[in-house]
Amino acid sequence: MLSYRHSFHAGNFADVLKHIVLIEVLQHLGKKDKAFDYIDTHSGAGLYHLASVHAEKLQEYQNGIAKLDAADWPELSAYFSVINSVNTDKSLLYYPGSPFIALHFMRRQDRAWLYELHPEDAGLLLQNTQNIKRARVMREDGLKGLLSLLPPVSRRGLVLIDPSYEIKSDYDLVFQTVEKAYAKFPTGTYAVWYPVVERSRITRLEKQFIKSGIKNIQRFELAVTADSDERGMTSSGMIVINPPWQLMDTMSQLLPKLVNRLAIDSGAFYKSEVLVAE
Questions:
Q1: pLDDT digits (tens, 9 = 90+) for 224-271
Q2: Is position 79 within any domain?
Q3: Known catalytic residues?
């Protein structure tokens, strides 16, 4: 299915969580001079105009990035540095997607592999990154393409997997793909985003990872309201394999503050936990 467009959801609370985790991993990888590869299986357009027809239709960013003031979040200075880099003044007109965020922290020696299957978004992504030599855009199925790239030449890397999960079988497909990818590249960092629409699907996904034999898995989740099968996405999370050593401490301090700021009602909560130890 190619109906999903992230431009309707850019900058929402799920993006806030996903991109904070993404930046923490990227900064960790950048501490060593040796090159690393960044593989994004569902890249989207890369950059989103928050005054566009798509963004204005749902205005999800209003309960996401628009609720955060950089002055109140010194611990998120790196996150806001990316947002500021795509906005010419203090107004919030553009929100960077994961490719732009990754490229902001990547160095000349690093490489980005950006997959996007939607023809319009793939075209926009190509246009938005056309002057960046270290980025390669591919209009292909990212879950299939991922396996062909592993292990990367650098032997260091971050894989971001964040499909729309419009098709229910995507949950199993994501797990199966990660399992195969890990077998080929067990030292890489894998960041898997998921939406909570039906909690039972996430419980199943969680159990699959726990039983997989893969070690060193952490999970971070941000819920703006209580679980409900009738409200759409109430929460979203990140499952991270081979996380940076400081990620758990960082997220355990950030998530209570984020829940307090982004909560829709008293049902909001967070999770910051080890699914599988090292």
A1: 999 998 878 999 999 999 999 999 999 999 999 999 999 999 999 999
A2: yes
A3: 162
* pLDDT tens-place string over residues 35-74: 999 999 999 989 988 877 676 666 788 999 999 999 999 9
| pLDDT of res. 55 | 60
Residue type at position 257? K
Closest by CA position to 84, among listed 75, 94, 72: 94
Compute, in degrees rounded to 10, the torsion defined by CA atoms 145, 9, 84, 81.
-60
Q: What's the token pair of residue 78?
A: 């790196």
- Considering only the C-alpha atoms of the chain, give the largest distance between any 2 of them, rounded to a whole number of Å: 49
Cβ 134 vs Cβ 111: under 8 Å: yes
Taking the CB of residue 85, how many other CB atoms lie within 10 A of it?
13
Tokens describing residue 200: 């039972």
| Number of domains forming the structure of the chain | 1
Do the domain assignments include residue 1?
no
Rounded Cα distance between 98 and 205, Å, is 23
**In Å, how far are 39, 98, 269 from 235, measured between CA atoms?**
25, 19, 9
Flag whether 98 is in a domain. yes
- Tokens 């950030």, located at residue: 254
Residue 175 lies in a domain: yes
- pLDDT for residue 5 is more than 80: no
Which CATH number do you get for residue 33? 3.40.50.150
| Full residue range of the structural domain in which residue 148 is found | 6-276
- Model confidence pLDDT, tens digit, residues 143-156: 999 999 999 999 99
